[in-house]
């Protein structure tokens, strides 16, 4: 007697072809059992490595942090090259009495067009007189006050006195201090004494910032904060309302200031914008230090900067004359 078989249980199984399955659902053993790729596939793009490539932003930032920081920004470096070249041209005119275009081209290995532009700027600032095909020493003196004479010319005047005064002023600064320095050739001489010290410097002078950056050899050296403002032609200084506003955001222990002249009432300056920046530095600091050599004594310029009561110390090279007798402290530098 035949017996009928009951219903058989069916178990579902995937179809024989599995190529349509998503890769994430495939068995890892299947992938492991695959043969190695053929040579024709060797040039196919490979998956990106989890390691960051050299052009990754973080890698670039780390690389920039590790490299030598001595080269300046290209734009700033070009500006400093032009100012330093003009300073050298002015010094050559002062030493020789005159300078021709051909001599300048040969001495500095620059084109006649570049020399003509430099000559035009030097003459416009009153640092030299124009002659047929060259420059000659300015026999009538600078056309503007000392504080706004091009830095190249001012740096060649009274160099020994400025170095002595700057060295004495820098000795006041202690490690960790925050200080402000204005744009002047005497204050510029402070840069070598501060570049490798752990201090913070706020300045409106591109020349000071550039010199410190070039002289700094350690990462623990001076940190420089530049203000904004208008770059006054030929001075390397940032001036104007933005400069004053930026200075008002800081507070410093020291402010080292240059000046155009000293009289019985205080310090003076020819340029209104310079005077405003110096007043802003006086407001932001605990102690205002004025650096001035004896050639500035008994000289009164157009704009009053501040009175003697606002000055904590005057650093100079000789005792003050009788007509400048004040209650301000005076530090006289050693010879």
UniProtKB/TrEMBL annotation:
Ranges for domain HTH deoR-type: 82-137
GO molecular function: DNA binding; DNA-binding transcription factor activity
Cross-referenced InterPro entries: Carb_Metab_HTH_regulators (IPR050313), DeoR-like_C (IPR014036), DeoR_HTH (IPR001034), NagB/RpiA_transferase-like (IPR037171), Tscrpt_reg_HTH_DeoR_CS (IPR018356)
Annotated keywords: DNA-binding, Transcription, Transcription regulation
Coiled coil: none
Pfam families on file: DeoRC, HTH_DeoR
Region (Disordered): 27-59
Protein name per its UniProtKB record: DeoR/GlpR transcriptional regulator
């Amino acid at each position: 007697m035949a017996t009928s078989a009951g219903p058989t249980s069916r178990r579902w199984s995937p179809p024989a072809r599995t190529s349509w399955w998503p890769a994430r659902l495939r068995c890892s053993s299947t992938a492991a059992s695959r043969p190695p790729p053929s040579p024709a596939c060797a040039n196919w793009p490979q998956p990106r490595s989890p390691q960051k490539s050299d052009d990754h932003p973080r890698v670039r930032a780390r690389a920039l942090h590790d490299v030598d920081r001595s080269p300046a920004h290209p734009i700033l470096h070009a500006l400093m090259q032009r100012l330093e070249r003009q300073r050298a041209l002015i010094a050559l005119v002062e030493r020789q009495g005159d300078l021709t275009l051909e001599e300048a081209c040969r001495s500095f290995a620059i084109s006649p067009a570049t020399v003509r532009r430099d000559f035009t700027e030097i003459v416009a600032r009153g640092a030299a007189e124009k002659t047929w095909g060259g420059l000659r020493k300015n026999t009538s003196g600078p056309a503007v006050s000392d504080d706004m004479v091009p830095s190249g010319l001012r740096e060649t005047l009274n160099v020994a006195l400025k170095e002595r005064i700057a060295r004495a002023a820098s000795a006041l600064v202690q490690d960790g201090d925050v200080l402000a320095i204005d744009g002047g050739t005497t204050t510029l001489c402070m840069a070598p004494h501060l570049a490798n010290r752990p201090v913070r410097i706020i300045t409106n002078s591109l020349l000071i910032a550039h010199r410190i950056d070039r002289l700094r050899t350690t990462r623990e050296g001076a940190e420089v904060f530049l203000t904004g403002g208008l770059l006054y032609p030929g001075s390397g200084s940032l001036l104007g309302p933005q400069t004053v506003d930026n200075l008002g955001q800081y507070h410093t222990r020291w402010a080292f200031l240059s000046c155009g002249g000293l009289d019985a009432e205080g310090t003076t300056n020819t340029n209104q914008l310079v005077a405003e920046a110096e007043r802003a530095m006086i407001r932001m600091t605990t102690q205002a230090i004025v650096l001035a050599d004896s050639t500035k004594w008994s000289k009164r310029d157009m704009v009053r900067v501040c009175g003697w009561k606002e000055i904590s110390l005057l650093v100079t090279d000789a005792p003050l004359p009788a007509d400048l007798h004040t209650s301000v402290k005076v530090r006289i530098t050693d010879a």
